[in-house]
Amino acid sequence: MGTLETERTTVGWAARDPSGVLSPYTYNVRNTGAEDVYIKVLCCGLCHPDIHQAKNDLGMSRYPILPILHTVMPRLLAFYGCENWSSCRGGIRGNEVQVRGETWGRDCRGCCGGCTQSDLEQYCSKKIWNYNDVYTDGKPKQGGFAGEIVVHQKCVVKIPEGLESEQVAPLLCAGITVYSPLRHFALTASSLRGGILGLGGVGHMGVKIAQAMGHHVTVISSSAKKKDEALEHLGVEAYLVSSYEMKSAIDSLDYIIDAVPVVHPLEPYISLLKLDGKLIITGVINAPLQFMRRKSITGTFTGSTKETEEMLEFCKEKGLTSQIEVVK
Ligand code: NAP
User: Which of 16, 24, 30, 301 pairs with 316 at a CA distance of 20 to 30 A?
Assistant: First the structure.
């Protein structure tokens, strides 16, 4: 324990250009400061935001770029730095470091009131992104598709005992991305009718979390391909194909979580909402939005570290796991 003075070399997988192809990349992880945690990465999730960044979908990628810091799931960590033990998120049990994961999209320094007072550090306009950004030492910040990473202690979350690493990784991005808006917009009553638009990583966790809250869930998909999976495996109440099956569901939904990663019209989905229904856009698209009528369109950006811990407890309590394919 204590500050690590020398830089450490690690090997990761980096995209070098918008092809998105990853290849081995050797670089130095940053020195640990007093509030830093040095992490050995055992597994991590892959989310569409990583693909957006690797392929420069948003026009802001700085190559070489090591994606995947959204959902890093380290288990027992080599742990240096972080002299401020008592405030280190994730805490310590006896002399052992507890199992931790890393939240994404933040390395907030408490630079605005919202961050420090409201646990909303993910919205801080001055945050340093977990990857594809430059750290305070002027060096590129790289993601978790690597052997080791160094993160600020505020970016680690406590993982409840009994949750498997591979299962937790997607919860740290897809899970919290759905859980946070449902909680924030008070969409938790069990009688609600929810729509999940796009049955991918975020969408499937949306189904599971909404169902665990007791909601009646409709999946809205771009094709009929996932119908059996949605109806039989995930057990949703209804499945709509967005191009031709939507009329039966007009004015029927309290909310829709939109997790489509490309530009698409919103009006067809707004028509599915009840009065005061909410279209919650989580998909990252690089285009202006247009909307109308007395219904809310809103967006959210993942969830705070505190909310993430709350979500993990919720998943544990409800026995929720993610559907994953483990690749060695
Ligand atoms: P994903 O696994 O690739 O799933 C996206 C789903 O969107 C697909 O499975 C597909 O479902 C649907 N889709 C419809 N048209 C598509 C098209 N032309 N190309 C690709 N997919 C299409 O992605 P994800 O990891 O769930 O992420 C979804 C979006 O949310 C991304 O833009 C990601 O960056 C964003 N995101 C945002 C946050 C946040 O905090 N706001 C957090 C995580 C992710 P169907 O086959 O059912 O149509």
Answer: 301
The helix (run of H) or strand (run of E) holding residue 307 is helix 305-318
Q: Is residue 211 part of a domain?
A: yes
Ligand 1 pocket mutation, candidates 202, 223, 285, criterion most atoms within 8 A of CB: 202
- H helices of 27-158, in order, are 48-54, 113-118
b/e string for 275-287 if b means 16 or more Cβ within 10 A?
eebbbbbbbbbee
Whose C-alpha lies nearest to ligand 1, atom 4? Answer: 200
> Where in the sequence is the domain holding 232, given as residue range(s)?
174-302
In a domain, 140, yes or no: yes
- Same domain for 133 and 218: no
Would you say the CB of residue 123 lies under 6 angstroms from ligand 1? no
Per-residue model confidence as pLDDT tens digits over 255-282: 999 999 998 998 899 999 998 899 999 8
Q: What is the pLDDT of residue 192?
A: 98
Residue 117 is part of a domain; what is its CATH number? 3.90.180.10
Residues (pLDDT < 50) of the chain are 1-4, 75-86, 90-100, 104-105, 290-294
Residue ending a domain, choose from 158, 193, 212: 158
**Which of 314, 296, 283 is closest to 220 using CA atoms?**
283
The pLDDT, as a whole number, for residue 288 is 64
Q: Is residue 134 part of a domain?
A: yes
pLDDT reported for residue 115: 61
Let me know whether 206 and 112 are in one domain: no
Ligand 1 pocket member 194 (CB < 6 A): no
The pTM is what? 0.84
Per-residue confidence (pLDDT) for residue 300, from 0 to 100: 79
Q: How many domains does the chain have?
A: 2
Beta-carbon contacts of 228 under 8 Å, excluding residues fewer than 6 positions away, are none
Same domain, 182 and 280: yes
Nearest CA to ligand 1 atom 29: 283
Q: Which atom of ligand 1 is nearest to the CA of 174?
A: 43
